[in-house]
Design brief:
Helix content: under 10%
Distance between the termini: 37 Å
Radius of gyration: 13 Å
Strand content: over 45%
Length: about 120
């Protein structure tokens, strides 16, 4: 599986962005997908994840209510809708995928086998 993340950019605080993670390869519906982010000088952290069927999601607690993950099986694409963005959301955002059982959504980066190249999100005041 190859992943291509896109949709990052510069946005003012309070604004919104939608990131996309497009997959190429076979049987993407057998993979759980996660979004992670890494700010300068900080460790990569889990943002959100979706199970292979797209019916179960998981979020970093502090982001619930502002971020929403979804997947379009027909397009082999996973989205991350980010609303009410804050300056502290500035980071490189990565999508990652791993073959998983139906209900499993890993939250640790080491569990993921495939990574996209990252897309930069910059939130300004």
């Amino acid at each position: 599986v190859q992943l291509q993340a896109s949709g990052g950019g510069l946005v003012q605080a309070g604004g919104s962005l939608r990131l996309s993670c497009a997959a190429s390869g076979r049987n993407f519906n057998q993979y759980a997908v996660g979004w992670f982010r890494q700010a300068p000088g900080q460790e990569r952290e889990f943002v959100a994840g979706v199970n292979r069927a797209g019916r179960m999601t998981n979020y970093e607690d502090s982001l619930k209510g502002r971020f929403a993950i979804s997947r379009d099986g027909a397009k082999d694409t996973v989205y991350l809708q980010m609303n009410s963005l804050k300056i502290e959301d500035t980071a490189i955002y990565y999508c990652a995928a791993v073959r998983a059982i139906l209900s499993h959504i890993p939250i640790h980066s080491g569990a993921y086998a495939y990574w996209g190249q990252g897309t930069l999100v910059t939130v300004s005041s």
